[in-house]
Design a protein that fits this description.
The protein has a domain at about 45-145: Immunoglobulin-like. Helix content is about 20%, strand content about 40%. The chain is built from two helices and eleven strands. The chain has helices at about 1-30, 155-160; strands at about 45-50, 55, 60-70, 80-85, 90-95, 105-110, 110-120, 125-135, 140-145, 155, 165. The strands form three sheets. It has a five-stranded mixed beta sheet, with no helix packed on it. InterPro entries: TraQ_bacteroidetes, TraQ_sf. Pfam families: TraQ_transposon (PF12988).
Length: about 170
């Protein structure tokens, strides 16, 4: 009986060896350094802007309300703002801070904020605001404002004759 058992065990030896090699191979392949856990930290975002008046007078300030909406949540994301004015003249500022300089990069402390644009010219004005994050994603918002011209009519003796002088 022992002889039969030893013969049966010897017949299974190649199967045991093959099973050990297969287990070792699967273990080594599954522990490869090439398959690292990927953590996504680059989330795109959208920018929502409340409606802005199209007309502005020289010296008038317009409020621009902006909200950054993330598609994912990564706690170390920082947002930045820069702007470029290509028509007219004016200043852009964040709340009561000093006016921004064109093409300089400014950090945004919150994802919901207000900018204030003050017109300093008597012609139409156009400018772009660029909002970017710390991963290189960037959104452009374009603004175009038309200057309102106030017309003051002067009453003069000529006005009685139907002439109107503009100041």
């Amino acid at each position: 009986m022992i002889a039969i058992f030893n013969k049966f065990r010897m017949g299974l030896l190649p199967i045991y060896v093959l099973l050990a090699i297969l287990t070792a191979s699967v273990t080594l392949v599954s522990c490869s350094k090439d398959d690292e856990l990927e953590v996504q930290n680059d989330f795109p975002f959208e920018v929502n802007v409340m409606p802005v008046p199209k007309d502005v007078a020289n010296g008038q300030t317009v409020e621009i309300r902006i909200t950054i909406q993330r598609t994912g949540n990564y706690s170390n994301t920082q947002y930045f703002l820069r702007y470029f004015q290509f028509d007219g003249q004016g200043t852009l500022r964040y709340y009561d801070e000093a006016p921004y300089l064109p093409n300089d990069l400014y950090s945004l402390p919150t994802e919901q904020f207000r900018l204030y644009y003050t017109s300093t010219s008597a012609v139409s004005q156009s400018f772009d605001v660029w909002i970017s994050d710390s991963f290189g994603n960037e959104k452009q918002i374009s603004f175009s404002l038309t200057v309102m011209i106030s017309i003051v009519a002067k009453r003069s003796p000529a006005a009685k004759a139907g002439f109107l002088f503009l100041e």
